[in-house]
């Protein structure tokens, strides 16, 4: 998310608990494990 979008989100969604809670380390590990299966 761009910095401008983050700033707007903080302004307009002050009561929200939404967020980006993705685990990028886990996503990267999954992608590395998946790659050999796709390249076969």
In short:
This protein has 40 residues and is mostly helical. The chain has helices at 3-12, 24-39.
What layout of secondary structure does this protein have?
Elements: H1 3-12, H2 24-39
What count of domains describes the coordinates?
Answer: 1
Query: What is the overall silhouette?
Result: elongated
Q: Tell me the span between the first and last alpha carbons.
A: 34 Å
Provide the low-confidence segments as ranges: none
The value of Rg in angstroms is 16 Å
**Total helical segments:** 2
Task: Characterize the largest beta sheet: strand count, sense, and whether it forms a barrel.
Answer: none
| Strand percent estimate | under 5%
Structural class: mainly alpha
Q: Find the count of extended strands (DSSP E, 2+ residues).
A: 0
Q: What is the percent of helical residues? A: 55-70%
């Amino acid at each position: 998310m761009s910095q401008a979008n983050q700033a707007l989100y903080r302004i307009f969604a002050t009561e929200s608990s939404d967020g980006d809670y993705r685990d990028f380390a886990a996503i990267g590990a999954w992608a590395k494990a998946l790659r050999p299966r796709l390249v076969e």
